[in-house]
Design a protein that fits this description.
40% helix, 5 strands, alpha/beta, 101 residues
């Protein structure tokens, strides 16, 4: 499940809950594409209630980070479940994207 909230005029927060597999992963990827096209200076994700993620969704995270960085925009993860944080550490995603638990 995805829920989008505006935290300020320049920042949007996407709250992700449950597993990111199957249709929910596809919905997540579409939402990330939409946020990349938006005008928000900062895109923040909250994965504190997420329990799993596909490699394709991880690829979307990396792509979004690179595209937003090239546009002088910020992409970060604030709030990360222990399970996902361990996965992100294993693949060294935490060295590319700002992740806080």
């Amino acid at each position: 499940m995805l829920r989008q909230e505006l935290t300020s005029e320049t920042e949007v927060l996407l709250i992700v809950s449950g597993p990111l597999f199957g249709e929910s992963a596809l919905e997540f990827e579409r939402k990330i594409d939409s946020l990349k096209k938006s005008s928000y200076v900062t895109v923040t994700l909250d994965f504190s209630m997420a329990v799993g993620i596909t490699s394709s969704a991880i690829g979307k995270l990396v792509s979004a980070h690179r595209q937003l960085l090239a546009q002088n925009r910020s992409f970060r993860i604030n709030g990360c479940s222990e399970t996902l944080y361990r996965i992100f550490q294993k693949i060294k995603l935490d060295t590319l994207i700002q992740i806080t638990r």
